[in-house]
Write a structure and sequence with these properties.
The chain contains 2 helices and 10 strands; from the N terminus they run E-E-E-H-E-E-E-E-E-H-E-E. The chain has a 5-stranded antiparallel sheet. The protein has a 5-stranded antiparallel sheet with strand order 5-9-6-7-8. The longest helix is centred in the N-terminal third of the chain and has 7 residues.
Length: 139
């Protein structure tokens, strides 16, 4: 199956913490970073997720925010450091490619945000992704 989602990062499930309806699934990405995906218990069961399961973390580029450094006092726990590799700006929006250990992320942000943050190839950034915006897929 082909998907329009640009951000597809391979990883391994570290833990599954079930709740009433949702589960928090910790995933270690190939680069060693750990992220949390909040998915339904039904999805955990259907995908057969357990520690050691191979998965791909899927994130739409519109759900990736960028900061110029680590952010404290924020509910977003998934903060992945990286370096801007490319900025393609249009009339209102921009596509920013960020190299991270083990892969690449693309963030779709406003052209104004690119200017305000001074983003250009070589800029250090932190990609911020809410756990509810990460989907998981199995091979």
């Amino acid at each position: 199956m082909s998907l329009s989602i640009r951000n597809q990062i391979p990883g391994t499930v570290v833990s599954v913490t079930p709740g009433e309806v949702m589960a928090a699934v910790r995933v270690r990405l190939e680069g060693g970073q750990e992220i949390t995906a909040a998915i339904t218990l039904e999805a955990v069961k259907e995908l057969g997720l357990a520690p050691g399961s191979a998965v791909r973390a899927l994130v739409k580029s519109t759900e990736v925010s960028l900061a110029t450094g680590a952010v404290e006092g924020l509910s977003i726990r998934n903060q992945i450091p990286g370096t801007v590799t490319d900025v393609a700006a249009g009339g209102a929006m921009a596509s920013v490619k960020v190299g991270v250990v083990g892969g690449e992320l693309t963030a779709a942000i406003t052209k104004d945000a690119v200017a305000d943050l001074g983003l250009a190839a070589g800029s250090s950034v932190v990609a911020l992704i809410k756990s509810t915006e990460i989907s998981l897929a199995t091979p």
